[in-house]
Amino acid sequence: MGDAKKAEKEVIVCRCEEITLDEIREWIDRGCDTFNELKRVLRVGMGPCQGRGCQDIILRELSRRLGVPIDQVEAGTVRPPVKPIKTGLLASE
User: Domain 3-91 belongs to what topology?
Assistant: First the structure.
């Protein structure tokens, strides 16, 4: 295996869940063709960053693998809290 291919397998796309680019590609090739499906299978976008670190990368990869413009790739469901907040802020009321 070439150095570029080996390095590509080790590229972490979702740092919260430690999901690699290779894993993302594998599941897209298995038929997961939306962000929400990848989220259900791999938990991408469900960590502390709520997808702010990985969602754009995954959407671009879906676009490439599926051969469609990125604006035709559904961004997926975002559920609150969109940003992590301290529990104390909610409990103080």
Answer: Arc Repressor Mutant, subunit A (1.10.10)
